[in-house]
Design a protein that fits this description.
41% helix; 4 helices; mainly alpha; 71 residues
Length: 71
């Protein structure tokens, strides 16, 4: 999928997210259901995942514990 298309689209189908992340569509659905990825469930169409939700996967998350560096 071309970068221009990625930046133009506001919502992605699960198969498109799977292609972008190089994972299976089943994994995308699993991520939506366990809360790692935001999805919108339309009744007569497949789930839609907002572009921002996909981009948030690449944001560093704060750690609950401090990382200890070894000398």
């Amino acid at each position: 999928m071309a970068i221009e298309l990625i930046l133009k689209k506001q919502f992605f189908r699960p198969d498109e997210v799977a292609e972008l992340l190089l994972i299976t569509k089943r994994t995308v659905y699993r991520m939506v259901h366990d809360g790692r990825l935001v999805g919108i469930d339309f009744t007569k169409r497949p789930w839609r995942i907002p572009r921002e939700a996909v981009f948030l996967l690449f944001q560093p998350q704060p750690h609950s514990q401090k990382v200890q560096h070894l000398p």
